[in-house]
Design goal:
Number of strands: 16
Radius of gyration: 75 Å
Largest sheet: 6 strands, antiparallel
Distance between the termini: 30 Å
InterPro entries: P-loop_NTPase, RecF/RecN/SMC_N
Pfam family, one: SMC_N
Protein name: Chromosome partition protein smc
Organism: Candidatus Nomurabacteria bacterium GW2011_GWE1_35_16
Number of helices: 19
Helix content: 55-70%
Strand content: 5-15%
Keywords: Coiled coil
Structural class: alpha/beta
């Protein structure tokens, strides 16, 4: 047994949780009209993925939810779970074309619907898509056509269906829907692949002009690369020589600058010293002023000396008068003689003093003064001797006072003479020093002139060196700019070139020639437009890689198209073969069941070919598609104008009726039941639901119907909704559905064996 149970909660009239177990080959569901027994069948349709609300007798999802009653509140959702036995691992996913078995002993499929109409599907508690549910059920021959569920009033649906729909039902019943599904999937993949191929082709066409343009640019880049190699060699020579020249010139100029700065500093110090000496000489030239001051002072001293000498003469005259007054006549004579000697002495002294004044030589003046001193000593001695004779005068106060004043004047004269002598010495020393100073000043003037001349030469050399420094700085700036530009053109390796020194003299004219060659190559590089060579090469590589990728993609798509077309062809051939074989098997069983039902006659299915209505997408083909896909379209749609169908042919015994629409209601029911049972015999579904399909049968045909149920139950589980006693008698379990006092459907179950033994 495959179907194990079904559980309903809040579905239509089942307000409470209700469960039905299917443990016997035939299970009957009975109950009065309106009790909700057909809701069980609809619950099976619902949980197995039915999307037509009309088939579920509703307009929307909310119509499937229990609305509530006086005693039971309404539900906000309806859920149905159906459980299958998978101990033999017969369930699998077949979407990929390769069956993937589910390693579960039980498969529980659930579906919930909410008040807003949203649905949720689950397999063993895991939320899945509707597509997954349909795929899983297809693996056990439960298709979407519902051939395994025949509801009330739909027993003759297979008879009323068109040949095309009837073919779909037969394919579904035969388990061939998986081929149809794979064909449709393959065709969708083929269409998508063709669209992708067109897109890839369009992309290749789109990038082709750009790729050709990039190829030309790459050729320019290659030529530019060759020029860069030449430029690299020129740069290596130019930068190494230029670096050597700048280094050598920098060192030379730096040494000259250092020497000139040292010499200038030395000369500045020397000039400073000489200027200090000059300032000193200028200061010492003021000695002349001092000499003049000393001479003026000397004149003052001499004038003072003369005044004192005149005072001395007056005092001496007074003393002589006093002496004459006290002396006798002979004494007066002697005194006169002595006075004449005194006058002679005074005159002699005055001459000596005048001579000393006129002499510049201090030694002569000293000798004269010594003579004057000697004369005075002699005269004093003589006077002293005379005084002894004149003891009378010593007692005279006036005489004594005059003598004292005389001595003081003589002492003053001596001091004045000493001062005069000192002044004369100072004047002579200053004059000598002035002579020496004038000689040194003249020598310093000459030395300062020579040093200033040397300093001017040094300053001139420094100015000339500044011009050389500016020239070298200009060369260095140009070198750095060229170095930066070279780094952009050929890379950072130019820095290594700029650190290489070469031996020998660097000729500037040779460097200028190299520079001109470099400039010419740079102009050519600029004209070649290869300044962004890296971006061009990258873009070319990316575009080329994309083109190669698209080429491989196009090749893979072509292979995929060929593979899909081959697969579709194989699937169609397999489907056609399986369909024809299945129809032959159905015809064999159909004939047997039909003859059993009608006591003879014949019935069979025939395959028809009908004109297919063209789709709008087939009528409108773009001009590009007509040109590119004309041959492919003819090949692919060779059977586009026709499609297969199934036609039912019956011949009743003892009647000439062959058209289905001429059959009575009972005959149509028997014919549809015979066909459904025949299909079930060929490819039995795991279960078959029959909802009052025996309502139109009489008692005799009901027994035949019951016999066929027992025969069919050997291959499929049967869930039969019926009012027919004969049909009930063939079941092992009866489920009674009644509308309880609570306003919801209620289930009652009974096993007929237990009921029979209980009745006995």
């Amino acid at each position: 047994m495959t179907l194990k149970s079904i559980e309903l909660f809040g579905f239509k009239s089942f307000g409470k949780k209700s469960s039905l177990s299917f443990t016997n080959p035939i299970t009957c569901v009975v109950g009065p009209n309106g009790s909700g027994k057909s809701n069980i069948v609809e619950a099976m349709r619902f949980v197995l993925g039915e999307q037509s609300m009309k088939s579920l007798r509703g307009k929307g999802g909310s119509d499937l939810i229990f609305k509530g009653s006086k005693m039971i509140s309404s539900s906000n959702r309806a859920s149905v779970n159906i459980t299958f036995d998978n101990s033999k691992k017969i369930f699998s996913f077949t979407n990929s074309g390769i069956g993937i078995s589910l390693d579960y002993d039980e498969i529980v499929i659930g579906r919930e619907v909410f008040a807003d109409g949203a649905n949720k599907y689950s397999i063993n508690g895991t939320e899945v898509r509707l597509k997954d549910v349909i795929d899983l059920l297809a693996s056990v021959n439960i298709g979407s056509s519902g051939h395994h569920i025949i509801s009330q009033g739909e027993a003759d649906r297979v008879l009323n269906a068109s040949n095309k729909d009837r073919r779909s039902m037969i394919e579904d019943a035969l388990g061939l829907k998986i081929y149809q599904y794979r064909i449709k999937e393959s065709e969708r993949k083929l269409d998508k692949t063709i669209i992708n191929m067109k897109e890839v082709t369009a992309l290749r066409r789109e990038i082709a002009p750009h790729l050709n343009f990039l190829k030309k640019q790459v050729e320019k880049v290659e030529r530019a690369r060759t020029m860069r190699e030449d430029l690299r060699g020129l740069y290596k020579t130019y930068f190494s020589r230029e670096f050597t020249y700048i280094s050598n010139e920098g060192s030379r100029i730096a040494n000259m600058r250092r020497q000139l700065d040292e010499k200038a500093l030395y000369l500045d110090n020397k000039i400073s010293d000489l200027e200090k000496l000059k300032d000193n000489n200028v200061t010492e030239s003021e000695t002349l002023k001092i000499i003049k001051e000393k001479e003026l002072k000397l004149q003052e001293v001499r004038s003072k000396r003369d005044d004192v000498a005149r005072s001395l003469g007056r005092i001496e005259g007074i003393i002589e008068g006093i002496e004459r007054h006290f002396a006798k006549i002979p004494e007066v004579k002697e005194h006169i003689i002595k006075e004449s000697e005194w006058k002679s002495l005074v005159e002699d002294l005055e001459l000596k003093i005048d001579e000393a004044i006129q002499q510049e030589d201090i030694s002569i003046v000293i000798n004269i003064l010594r003579n004057i001193k000697s004369k005075l000593g002699e005269f004093t001695h003589s006077v002293t001797e005379e005084k002894s004779d004149m003891s009378v005068l010593t007692e005279n106060a006036e005489y004594l006072e005059m003598q004292k004043a005389k001595e003081e004047i003589i002492l003053s004269i001596s001091n004045i003479k000493e001062e005069e002598k000192n002044i004369v010495d100072e004047i002579n020393n200053l004059k000598e020093k002035e002579k020496e100073s004038q000689s040194v000043f003249r020598d310093n003037e000459r030395a300062l002139y020579d040093v200033l001349r040397d300093k001017n030469e040094v300053v001139s050399s420094i100015h000339g060196l500044s011009f050389e420094e500016e020239r070298l700085l200009s060369i260095k700036n140009a070198f750095e700019m060229e170095l930066a530009e070279g780094g952009v053109l050929i890379g950072r390796e130019v820095v290594d070139y700029a650190r290489m020194k070469v031996e020998g003299e660097i000729v500037r004219s040779t460097q200028e020639d190299l520079r001109r060659k470099i400039e010419r190559i740079k102009i050519k590089l600029e004209d070649s437009g290869s300044g962004n060579a890296g971006e061009i090469m990258k873009e070319y590589d990316d575009t080329m890689e994309r083109d190669v990728f698209l080429g491989r993609e196009l090749e893979d798509l072509n292979k995929s198209i060929d593979s899909l077309r081959l697969l579709i062809q194989e699937l169609k051939e397999t489907l056609d073969k399986e369909f024809k074989t299945g129809v032959e098997k159905i015809n064999k069983q159909f004939q047997e069941f039909f003859a059993l039902m009608f006591g003879g006659g014949s019935a069979f299915l025939s395959i028809t070919m009908e004109h297919k209505k063209p789709k709008k997408s087939d009528e409108k083909v773009s001009a590009d598609d007509e040109g590119d896909e004309e041959s492919e379209g003819e090949e692919e749609n060779s059977d586009l104008g026709f499609e297969r169908g199934i036609e039912i042919n019956v011949t009743l015994p003892q009647k000439k009726v062959k058209d289905l629409h001429m059959l009575s209601g009972g005959e149509r029911s028997l014919t549809s039941i015979a066909l459904l049972f025949a299909v079930s015999q060929v490819n039995p579904p795991p279960f078959l639901v029959l909802d009052e399909t025996d309502a139109a049968l009489d008692e005799a045909n009901s027994r035949k119907y019951g016999n066929m149920l027992e025969n069919l139950s050997k291959y499929s589980q049967l869930i039969v909704v019926t009012h027919n006693r004969e049909t009930m008698s063939r079941a092992q379990v009866l489920y009674g559905v009644t509308m309880s006092a609570e306003g919801a459907s209620k289930l009652l179950s009974i096993r007929l064996e237990d009921a029979t033994s209980y009745a006995k």
